[in-house]
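To the structural biology subgroup,

Please find below the input and predicted structure for CMP/dCMP-type deaminase domain-containing protein, which we are adding to the shared reference set this quarter. The sequence is reproduced verbatim from the submission form. If anyone notices a discrepancy with their own records, reply to this email rather than editing the shared folder directly, so we keep one authoritative version.
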Amino acid sequence: MNDNSPRMTDRLISAATEVLHPHRVGDRLFGNVGSALLTGSGTLHTGVCIDTGSGTGFCAEHAAIAAMVTAREYRIARIVAVWRSDEGVLHVLPPCGRCREFIRQVDPGNLDTEVVLGRATVAPLRELLPAHAWPDPLD
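Predicted structure (tokenized):
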């Protein structure tokens, strides 16, 4: 995590925006959300969402993380997801609960992942994932 500047946030938003290529298959939409992440070593990975029936699709963050793991990296320094409305307005999307937990489980250090919530707003995953510690035994 070498660059905490707004410039890094803009770079990630730009990379996520570049992979937005919505494609409709029946009533499903693929690639309408893009994600970009920066690893602890400074490598950039991107991915898009795939909306399929029966809950078998996945979020853009999952695709970017899969690309990262394929490259044998596990630590996420910063991550963002974006979506463009039908009017052409770009939005940063916070990760859903499933993505938040997925990020956490890929590497324990990812609780410190900086999640981009807007051009000027970044929060550590630990603040977005309450009660993230494994519970103590009852007995």
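Summary notes: Residues 6-18 form the longest helix (13 residues). The chain is about 25% helix and 30% strand.

Regards,
Lab coordination
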